[in-house]
Structures are given as C-alpha cells and as structure tokens.
Write a structure and sequence with these properties.
- This protein is mainly α and 231 residues long.
- It folds into two domains: 156 residues, no CATH class; 53 residues, no CATH class.
C-alpha cells in the first residue's frame, strides 16, 4: 500500500490543487445558501459529480420534478457514460472495487487513468483504485475547508460560484489549443447562445446539451477529418 501511494500521490497533485480550489467554493455556497454542513459533506461523498454538485444546490433550494432532475443530470454528466465504456473490460477484473471505480470516474480521474504508466510490481487494480480514492479525498477536503470557512467566518461571498465557471473557461481554452479542429468548441458556444435566446437563462441547460449532442453526432465525420488532417 505504501509503495502504491508513493507512485499514485505525485500523479494526483495537479488534481489535488484543482479539486481543493473548487471544493472550497462548493462548501461555502452550501453554507451561504442556508443548507446544513452535512448536506455539503453528503453530496461530496455520495454524489461526487463536479458541476452537478453546484447545480444540486439550486435544486435543493428550488425543488423540481424528478424527471427534470434526471434529465438535467444526464445531460450535464452524459460524457461519463463514454468514460465507463473505455474501461468496462478492465473494471470487470477489479472485484468489489469495480463499483467504486465506476462511481469515481470523474473527468480528471479518467484523464489520469488513461495516461497512467503502470509499473510491473504494482497491480492495475491497486493503483487505479488509489488514484481514484485520492482524488475524491481532495474534493472532500476542499468541501470541508469551505464549510469551515462558511460557518466560522462572515464575509461577502458574492461571485464565489464563479470559481466553477473559471475552471470551465480554463478547460475550454486548453481544449481549444490542444485540438486541430474547433468544431466542438464552436458548436458548444452556438448551442448555448441559441438556447439562452430561446429558453432564457433559467432553462437553457437541457436544450443546449441536447443541441450539442445532436450537433456532435451530425458533425462527427467533419470533426474526425479535421483531427486527422495533418496525420
């Protein structure tokens, strides 16, 4: 276990910095929204879904139907379905750890696991599980810090929710620079703008996600061609 930790921890340091930085605003928002600290901890333990956790705060404060909650969750995190498909055969060999590995497959964890260089003396099961667990611990740590600050310190938290927006802006810029074709990025911007005009800022998530999915399916050949143009 110590050997596994020595290998896994350095790999997860970038995720640690990001998750603690975003977990703190999440914990703060839960407290400043009037919800219990246990709600923040419970969501980070049992939901652990990044952006959807921030959305969940609004859903708890302004309850909507289960169908709408289900659809919103599906569209916000639908990319996780494809993450799981790429590891489906490997996770079958992980025994009892399989269920947690499926649950903990966030964007950042998936990225780490895909690029992981496995050393011969360390089993994939042990290393993959340790990386996934460490990442969730980082998120929970950030949440606890945010709850602590929100409970004991009184200050103006206006705009603190922009931390998640800032994270997505950084991811957007990185994706823009990393890929040859910008069709998916431009499609996302266009779908969001159209949905904002047609449905308003309070109801744009589901229609914009639907437009993006349809657009990606339709434009898939052009995206593949654009990425392979220089190969």
């Amino acid at each position: 276990m110590k050997k596994t930790l020595r290998i896994a921890f350095p790999m997860t340091i970038p995720v640690m910095l990001g998750y603690i930085s975003v977990g703190i605003p999440f914990g703060l928002l839960v407290i400043k929204s009037g919800l219990s600290p246990w709600v923040a901890l419970g969501i980070s333990l049992f939901v652990y879904a990044g952006a959807m956790q921030f959305v969940a705060i609004g859903l708890l404060l302004n309850p909507v139907g289960l169908v709408q909650v289900g659809l919103m969750t599906l569209f916000v995190n639908i990319r996780h379905l494809f993450y799981g498909l790429s590891f489906i055969d490997l996770f079958k060999t992980f025994g009892p750890k399989k269920q947690y590995m499926i649950f903990a497959l966030t964007d950042e964890t998936y990225s780490l696991l895909c690029g992981l260089a496995i050393q011969n003396e360390i089993s994939k099961e042990s290393l993959f599980f340790t990386v996934s667990l460490l990442n969730q611990i980082y998120w929970i740590t950030g949440t606890i810090i945010g709850v602590f600050l929100g409970t004991l310190i009184t200050f103006n938290t206006t705009g603190i929710e922009f931390a998640l927006t800032a994270l997505f802006i950084v991811i957007f810029i990185e994706q823009w620079l990393a890929y040859k074709t910008h069709i998916p990025a431009l499609l996302g911007l266009a779908a969001s703008a159209i949905s904002l005009v047609l449905f308003g800022e309070g109801s744009l998530i589901i229609p914009s996600m639907a437009l993006m999915l349809i657009g990606l399916l339709f434009l898939k050949p052009f995206i593949i061609k654009g990425e392979g143009a220089d190969q």
